[in-house]
Design goal:
Blueprint lengths: L1 H19 L15 E6 L5 E6 L2 H11 L8 E7 L12 E2 L5 E3 L10 H6 L4 E2 L2 E3 L2 E2 L5 E6 L3
Length: 147
């Protein structure tokens, strides 16, 4: 039964990534802008930083931060189980090439920042299948300069 739920979760995560248009391994091209970094928070009021490399996604993030749009305000992407220099508080980070934005997502990829940190060893199985993370209460707070 557990294996069935894991397969179902992985299928749901794959579907979510396909629906949101988040890439699984898009290379950065010559047309790509310099990376941009944005602080985000969730319902716990904890904060993390996400790196964006895609010019369209950077523009969307800036529009969210500046109040120019309220469409697709939440983050979705695959996480890496490692610390990023720009996000030192956490033992995981969004893989920049997979990050996208959404309005509504399935529950299987939702969790708070502290919960992901506390259960990181379980991520990729029944918890956050495919390492897809979509915190429903995520919202960008500001653009930041990496440390």
């Amino acid at each position: 039964m557990r294996r069935s739920f894991a397969k179902l979760g992985a299928l749901a995560a794959g579907l979510l990534m396909a629906v949101t248009g988040a890439a699984t391994s898009a290379p950065v091209t010559a047309e790509a802008a310099d990376p941009a970094y944005f602080e985000f928070t969730d319902i716990t009021r904890e904060r993390a930083v996400v790196r964006l490399d895609d010019p369209e996604k950077i523009a969307h993030a800036r529009a969210l931060v500046n109040g120019e749009t309220t469409e697709r305000p939440h983050l979705v992407g695959r996480i890496a189980k490692s610390q990023a220099a720009y996000n030192p508080r956490w033992s995981f980070h969004f893989r920049p090439e997979t990050v996208d934005f959404f309005d509504v997502a399935i529950e299987v990829c939702d969790a708070t920042l502290p919960y992901v940190e506390d259960h990181l060893d379980e991520a990729g199985g029944a918890f956050l299948p495919g390492l897809v993370y979509c915190p429903w209460t995520s919202r960008l707070t500001r653009e930041v300069t990496p440390r």
